[in-house]
């Protein structure tokens, strides 16, 4: 059985670490480079970096920040935000990332998933899914809809159907973020997480809502996720990576302990 991963997420706006609730009210809270180094030293399994306004502003990622983070950590590093073609994927990988995350661009041009997988391998392609709970309908039978551009644009696409298509196109991993739970610290949307896990055979990362180590344990045990993405609880110093992993290990979850 593979170890369950704990992955701090660095949402970056204008080169600064930022955090909001349900994709709004963001405030700058620190230096992403220093934070990445600290999480690496605490035992994070991976780091995820999102340039959260790149897509909405129709620009590329701030590669200088990516390079500075990559110089400080020696664990897998995923970068996303504004990536819309294979050339931009290559730029990010050359800047030091091991994986690229595509979200809005993949919904608008699904071919970018297969093109990226062919160029760099499926293991390098992560598809981020921002998902909103909506009434069940003929178009959205799961009750979960794909939203793009940082939660700004609903797409009328069922999240489970999209997850399966991403896998078929060559994605190596899915990061499933609940807009409803994002930043609330009330726990992950486990119904959504479990539904996506059951719909695909590739690893699924739970994202959105972690407020305490118990939520991470629930994501990997009840939700079946391969990893739990966290932000606020470590950014604000409420818990450390070690706190989270020790809680999970003490309840039977297999995690990588480095101390």
Report on the structure:
- With 259 residues, the protein is of the alpha/beta class.
- It has one domain (5-251): Alpha-Beta Barrel (TIM Barrel), CATH 3.20.20.
- Helices cover 34% and strands 27% of the residues.
- The chain has ten helices and twelve strands.
- The protein has helices at residues 32-42, 63-70, 86-94, 104-108, 111-120, 159-169, 190-199, 213-221, 232-235, 241-250, and strands at residues 5-13, 16-21, 24-30, 47-51, 77-80, 99-102, 125-133, 144-148, 153-158, 173-178, 204-207, 227-230.
- It has an eight-stranded parallel beta barrel with strand order 1-4-5-6-7-10-11-12, surrounded by seven helices.
- A hairpin with a 2-residue loop joins strand 1 and strand 2 (16-21).
- Helix 8 packs across helix 10 (241-250).
- The longest helix is centred in the N-terminal third of the chain and has 11 residues, at 32-42.
- It is globular and about 50 Å long.
- The protein starts with a strand and ends in a 9-residue tail after the last helix.
- Pfam families: His_biosynth (PF00977).
- GO terms for molecular function: imidazoleglycerol-phosphate synthase activity; lyase activity.
- It is found in: Cytoplasm.
- One of its GO terms (cellular component) is cytoplasm.
- Its main location: cytoplasm.
List descriptors:
259 residues, 10 helices, 27% strand, TIM Barrel, eight-stranded parallel β-barrel, alpha/beta
């Amino acid at each position: 059985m593979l170890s369950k991963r704990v992955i701090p997420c660095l949402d970056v706006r204008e080169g600064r670490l930022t955090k909001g609730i349900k994709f709004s009210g963001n405030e700058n809270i620190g230096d992403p480079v220093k934070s990445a180094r600290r999480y690496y030293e605490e035992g994070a399994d991976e780091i995820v970096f999102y340039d959260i306004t790149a897509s909405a502003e129709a620009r590329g990622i701030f590669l200088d920040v990516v390079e500075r983070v990559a110089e400080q950590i020696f664990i897998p590093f995923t970068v996303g935000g504004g990536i819309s073609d294979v050339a931009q994927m290559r730029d990010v990988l050359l800047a030091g990332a091991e994986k690229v995350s595509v979200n809005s661009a993949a919904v608008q041009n699904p071919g970018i998933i297969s093109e990226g997988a062919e160029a760099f391998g499926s293991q390098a392609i992560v598809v981020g899914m921002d998902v909103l709970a909506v009434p069940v309908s003929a178009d959205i039978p799961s009750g979960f809809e794909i939203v793009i551009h940082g939660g700004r644009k609903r797409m009328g696409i069922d999240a489970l159907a999209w997850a399966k298509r991403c896998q078929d196109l060559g994605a190596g991993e899915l990061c499933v973020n609940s807009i409803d739970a994002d930043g609330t610290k009330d726990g992950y949307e486990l119904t959504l997480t479990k539904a996506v896990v059951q719909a695909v055979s590739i690893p699924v990362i739970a994202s959105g809502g972690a407020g305490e180590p118990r939520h991470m344990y629930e994501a990997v045990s009840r939700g079946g996720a391969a990893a739990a993405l966290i932000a606020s609880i470590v950014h604000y110093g409420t818990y450390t990576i070690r706190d989270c992993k020790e809680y999970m290990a003490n309840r039977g979850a297999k995690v990588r302990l480095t101390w």
